[in-house]
Amino acid sequence: MNSFKVKPAIRTEKITYAVRDIIVLANEVAKSGKEMLYLNIGDPNLYDFVPPRHMIEATYKAMLENKNGYSPSSGIKQAIDAIEGDANRKGIKNIHDIFVTTGASEAIELALTALVNEGENVLTPTPGYPLYTAISSKLRAFENPYYLDENNGWQPDIEDIKSKINEKTKGIIIINPNNPTGSNANKDSLKELVDLAVENNLVIFADEIYDKLLFDGAEHVSLASLNKDAPVITFGGLSKNYMVPGFRIGWGIVSGQKEMLSDYIEAINKMLRARLSANHPEQYGIQPALEGDQSHLTVAMEKLHRRRDMTVEMLNAVDGISCVKPEGAFYAFPQLHIDKPDNHFVAELIKETGVVVVPGSGFGQKPGTQHFRVVFLPTDEVLEKAYNSISKFFTNYCDKYNVNLTV
What we know:
- The protein has 407 residues and is α/β, with parallel strands linked by helices.
- It has 2 domains: 147 residues, Aspartate Aminotransferase, domain 1; 239 residues, Type I PLP-dependent aspartate aminotransferase-like (Major domain) (Aspartate Aminotransferase, domain 2), CATH 3.40.640.10.
- Helices cover 38% and strands 16% of the residues.
- It has an 8-stranded mixed β-sheet, sandwiched between helices. Strands 10, 11, 12, 14 and 15 form a 5-stranded antiparallel β-sheet that branches.
- Helix 5 links the parallel strand 3 and strand 4.
- Helix 4 crosses helix 5, helix 10 runs parallel beside helix 12 and helix 11 crosses helix 12.
- The longest helix is centred in the last third of the chain and has 22 residues.
- The relative contact order is 0.17.
- The model has no long low-confidence stretch (mean pLDDT 94).
């Protein structure tokens, strides 16, 4: 046997995914027999959330009818029509293409890959979902983060966005509601963002996968509804709103001036055809999900509202932790007012208490700040136990490592 070693592609060097990377440490700790409390994965099915039955039955019926082969590359007509109807109800007009994908993640990757060349960049929200930076790394694009303003409910910092646009900028991403902060961008911020994108000929990627999970009567404004001529791809899916992340069903909706978008749409469709199709029988769940009974959301939001309030109250009660109240989704992004890296805090927390959260550095954050992300999907009992453990651990951690509070 020779000593030859296969070298991976350079494009993989900077790819990280903090949400799952932290599981490596958690699994090691779990081997010791310590009780583990997982607040790291945004999967409703791991907890006490269930999808609407009529959606499941429609999917099962499709399987029994042997709709188990390839679907059309862009998705079945029934699903595409339902997605368009839902988009129209949100005020999205001037739609030129809709494509169904293997989760919203594939839609995002296809849309970015069809637009961005090596050495170019897309403005990416920070904090933000790490998939975007992973894809940019694979495309060998330059990172170009813009910051959300923690002191303003995590709204997009428009002035920061303006300062980051350059001749290599091709687009701008908005995640709304945001993962990891749970913020819901207001209409004024979205209007400014759209105007800025149009002025600079940027494609807008509007990730709205959590648009039906809102608290306190908050309104979600679909960004594409604010300007029918702006080039926007709106991402959605069944995973979060309809509690089936394992279905891997998402979509992209392309709207704006047709003349501006025609070549780009064809580029996306070339890749759609090359990868054949998304999961076929699950696509028959899209229409009943979007057009059928939505009472599962009422049940889910009652639980999430209570757990959101518990999260904010208990974490803000810890001297040295502050937490902006989330307005949507099921995440919170508390700040650690300490002079130690958040990944060190999180690693020690997992080892000492078995409470699994994700360091804020895995989502991006303003330099000099430290955070961690929690998922408040678990039951009230699990959350209360976890937050009490965090509170007790925080004091011990500061003493053990001579940590200074930065507030």
